[in-house]
Amino acid sequence: MDNTKDITIKDIVYRAKIRNGNIDKNKIIRAYEYALKMHKDQKRKSGEPYIIHPLNVAYILAGLGLDTTTICAALLHDVVEDTEATYEDIEERFGEDTATLVEGVTKLSKLFKTVEEAKAENYKKMFIAMEKDIRVIILKLADRLHNVRTLEYLRRDRQIAISKETIELYAPIAHKLGMYDMKIKLQDGAFKYLYPEDYEKVKKELEENLDKNKIFLEKTKNRIISELKRQRIFVKVKIETKNLFDIYKKMKEKNINVKEMKDLFVIKIITRGKAECYRILGILNTIYSIIPGTFRDYIASPRKNMYQAIHEILLGENGVVFETKICSYTMNKIAKYGITNYFSYMMYDEAKNKEAMFENNLSGIRDSLELGNLIENPKGFLETLKDEILDDEVYIFSPKGDIKALPKGSTGIDFAYGIHQEIGDHIKRCIINSIPMPFITKLKNGDIVEIEVGKKETNFQEEWIKEVKTAKAKTCMVKLLNKNKQIKKKKKTFEIFAKDRKNLALEITNVFTKNKINIESLEADVNDEKAKIKLTVKSKNNIDLKNIIEKLQKIENVKKVSIEE
Q1: In CATH, which of 3.30.70.260, 3.30.450.40, 3.90.1150.10, 2.40.30.170 is domain 486-564?
Q2: Burial class (CB in 10 A: 0-12, 13-18, 19+), 207
Q3: What is the 3-state secondary structure (H, E, C) of 349-387?
Q4: Across 14-18, 255-259, 331-335, 559-563, least confident range
Q5: Rounded distance, CA 215 to CA 105, Å?
Q6: What number is the average pLDDT over the span 7-27?
Q7: Domain range summary for the chain, segments of one domain joined by +
Q8: Higher pLDDT, 337 or 388
Q9: How confident is the model at residue 565, as a pLDDT?
Q10: CATH of 197-339, one of 3.90.950.20, 3.40.1400.10, 2.60.40.10, 3.30.460.10
Q11: What is the DSSP-derived secondary structure letter of residue 448?
Q12: How far, in Å, CA of 103 to CA of 130, rounded?
């Protein structure tokens, strides 16, 4: 029923109550009736009543176990943007929390110079709201999912733009929040419209390969179940495949076809707890051969998005290669629903829980927002934002064995700032795998990185900002460079050439002291009545160079004034 047009408010309430026992049925129905009234004459591009869209969005969120407030906001999320309703109307009828969520996903109405500028500002607005309440982005993901499902009714250029944005921004956000199910629906839904021919080709090849190997996969599955049962380990085993867009992406990256993919088929083994996961791993490795270099233990070292499982690629029945994923029931639930698991059993208004959710999943967005305020170029902000949330990560080790996950392509500077701002600001040497390397060296999975710090702040080169990946590193570097520029503006060295006379040096120094400019050093060189006076000065405020030079030039016998850069 995920993709049906015939969803009713009864379906939403029923689904919500299954996933979350604390649902206020009457409030949800009131929100629906108000949305229906406000959208009464509006139609979607498909020609259907507009209310179908908010109903579908609310249905998606109900299935994720979201609370009453979020489901109400889903039903009302377009009324402020598309009808005469106001924020105050929503607040009065449904409370501040619901109104705030609606406001968080409402686009800015002001005019912008470019489409890119408008996008950047709307993203910033949404992420600022999300930092206060992470339900804003979950609502936006559900909104985007239903829009992707109805792309067939839009012009081709709009299909391409929305699909591209979905793959580059919204699917990676879902991944960051651990919402794997949402991620693959967004990716595959957008893939279908972005590259329709490639989509159909990958889909067909996957189906053909699955049909060809299904018998042997079933044999492998049954043997695993039988062997584990004999060992008194009771499990749930499922045969899955890699999702279509991930298959396409891997084909492009590695220049291979579907048949050459080693992780095309997945046998997922779900058990009771952590201890059983490792017992199952040992049993599997006695009955099947592992493909070297494919073992990954995300239970011992969970991903940043809370994902936990043991992965390895094995050689199954009749030589069929498959990836196995071993996890507990709780781990599997977290992998599917991610951060939304918290909402069905946790009181959301506990500030510490909200803060923990944001810090553990999208803390980098805060740095992206700050960077967006420091740089005027919207394109630069958007690129950094995408880098921050892309699902490709590298795992870097400190000499003590601590792991730091960073966006792919990160540098030694990113690693330093990832530890602490003070370390990044004072980086003196970057040692990668025991070898001193340039600060902007790109890091690879498994690199061991040691950062040595100095007493002085690092003198970064401006062009390095383009090389670093994380918003935190970019933001801190921009601040440090601006600080150094301000220091340069407030500290200058003057050279004054003049014919020597009595009190010349005194009159020159008075020009600075009367303008509240401190003289740090003074050197005088007199030769054949020609005087060269060199002063280094510093002010709390920027020095008005034009004014100072004019006053110096008015002094008797002064011939020339220059500033040493």
Answers
A1: 3.30.70.260
A2: exposed
A3: CCHHHHHHHHHHHHHHHHHHHHHHHHCCCHHHHHHHHHH
A4: 559-563
A5: 47
A6: 92
A7: 9-194, 197-339, 354-476, 486-564
A8: 337
A9: 59
A10: 3.30.460.10
A11: B
A12: 11
Considering 2, 33, 48, 82, which one is annotated as catalytic?
Answer: 82
CATH code for residues 354-476: 3.10.20.30
CA distance 163 to 198: 14
Residue 154 tokens read as: 């839009």
- Lowest-pLDDT range, 146-155, 210-219, 429-438, 458-467? 458-467
User: For 434-439, which contacts have Cβ atoms below 8 Å and span 24 or more sequence positions?
Assistant: 437/412, 438/412, 439/411, 439/412, 439/413, 439/464
Other beta carbons within 10 angstroms of residue 404's beta carbon come to 18
Token couple for 404? 């730091």
**81 belongs to the catalytic site:** yes
Rounded distance between C-alpha atoms, residue 71 and residue 58, angstroms: 5
Instruction: Find out whether 4 and 15 touch, Cβ atoms under 8 Å.
Output: no
Q: What is the pLDDT of residues 484-537, one digit of tens each?
A: 777 666 677 888 888 888 888 888 888 888 888 888 888 888 887 888 888 888
Task: Report the distance separating Cα 125 and Cα 105, nearest Å.
Answer: 8
The kind and range of the H/E element at 119 are helix 115-132
Q: Are 472 and 425 in contact (CB under 8 A)?
A: no
Look at residue 534 and give its three-state secondary structure. Answer: strand
Distance CA 294, CA 63 (A): 34
Helix (H) or strand (E) holding 531: strand 530-538
Residue with the two structure tokens 């330093």: 416
